[in-house]
Design brief:
Layout lengths: L10 E6 L4 H16 L3 E6 L43 H15 L5 H10 L3 E5 H6 L13 E3 L1 H6 L6 E5 L1
Parallel strand pairs: 1-2, 1-5, 2-3, 3-4
């Protein structure tokens, strides 16, 4: 017997700080899932996670092969992390990952961002990271809601039944 949640989640604030395919897509899947469930979603891209919304980088995301303890080879065998040091291995793994995602009909980053914002989600860039990488709003995906300090982002994360998620 399922018990109705008396304190349903109303808002998620997701912080993406890494630019690997798996980190950016985890952020996008969670944000899209939230808006599809009627939950308010705000996403903050910071440090290398900015690549997920930077026009020049968002289509070039790759899978981290070195130091990634979750890497698996076909058949589920562990991926020897030192193989990632061999030239071309990371590109090959990234191509395989993108191919699998295409077969599963997982949308590209830009389409995911459009789905999130169409559902009412908001996409923000970190001011500190923007300054560090000498980026401007014009360098970001057109649907970006703005550039905020972390304090300004936290102000948008107020309210009961709100969760902050760091990917």
């Amino acid at each position: 017997m399922s018990k109705k949640n008396e304190n349903p989640l109303k808002k998620v604030c997701i912080i993406c700080a890494k630019a690997s395919i798996e980190d950016v897509y985890a952020t996008l899947v969670m944000a899209n899932g939230a808006v599809m469930e009627g939950i308010e979603a705000k996403v903050f891209f910071t440090f290398f996670g900015l690549d997920g919304i930077t026009k020049k980088q968002m289509k070039k995301l790759h899978t981290a092969t070195v130091g990634n303890p979750g890497m698996r080879m076909p058949g589920g065998l562990p991926f020897p992390t030192l193989l990632g040091l061999i030239p071309g291995v990371e590109a090959g793994v990234s191509t395989m990952m993108k191919g699998t995602m295409d077969k599963l009909d997982i949308p590209p980053v830009e389409e995911f961002l459009e789905m999130i914002t169409a559902g009412g989600g908001e996409i923000y860039a970190c001011k500190l990271a923007m300054d560090m990488f000498k980026l401007e709003l014009k360098d970001l995906w057109e649907g970006t809601s703005g550039v905020l300090t972390i304090g300004e982002f936290y102000e948008r994360c107020d309210g009961e039944n709100t969760q902050i998620i760091f990917t």
